[in-house]
Design a protein that fits this description.
This protein is α+β, with helices and mostly antiparallel strands and about 280 residues long. It has 3 domains: about 130 residues, Pleckstrin-homology domain (PH domain)/Phosphotyrosine-binding domain (PTB) (PH-domain like); about 60 residues, Orthogonal Bundle (Recoverin, domain 1); about 70 residues, no CATH class. It contains 10 helices and 9 strands. Helix 8 crosses helix 9.
Amino acid sequence: MAETNDTIAQLIHQLKAGVVMVKHKDNGKKYPRQFFLHEREGYITYDGSRKLNGKPRIYRVNDIDEIRTGFAAQTFDELVQRRKIKSNDHDRAFSIIYDNHRKGAHLIAPDMKTRDLWVSGLQHLVDQRSNKRQHHLIGEENWILEFFHAADTNKSQTLSKKECRDLLSNSLNIEMPDNIFENMFNKVQKTQYDVLNPVEFVTFFKMLTRRKDLYTIMQKFVKTGLQQTMENIYMDKHELLYFLRLTKNENMKHIDSLNQAQKVIDEFEMNNEFRKINSG
């Protein structure tokens, strides 16, 4: 395992050091650029653009769908047919396919060894990010199901509307109008009348966290709320404490300091990045 880790570390180090590769466009134009992996390993980019006020493109690891070696991408195939590139460049070529397979960066490395190094390094980063996302999703669902099973006092593997409402108000401090609750409950309830099974409750909870009315409320209390999307908006401890003091929620009235607000964030915020931002 140590040898594998050392090999990966060397790969990543070489990607960060960078190398000149030729970027090929579908119109036949080509541009030599110094490509490198950013220090924090979130994206690759390049130096060497001569455009006036031009900014180099960023290829985020999270956006990469696959890495194809040789001329497997359509752009390379067409360039070969139009004799814009030589067929013996095949072993030095690779394509980064991203943005849900809609876009691609088509590169030719100095040699096959460099090409293979970049393909291996990028594939490792893509797999690593994918595993982290999967782990986060599993962790999030397990966290949600802990509430479900705690509320399922008769062990029926279902929650009635009353049990669901009690869970929201007593454990999660969430109050919502009857019509919104009924609408959401009925939308996810598929198997049995007026109860939710574990899978349906997870869906219900995820719908709840993406409610537009909650998003609108958060926008009012978050300093940069109007610039944030529903997926990335969050309250820091100062904003959360102000919100709780203003709304005077009985279940949260014991929270009267920044330290206590931070503890709430640490306990209930499932997004690790948001927790780190708040604890900083």
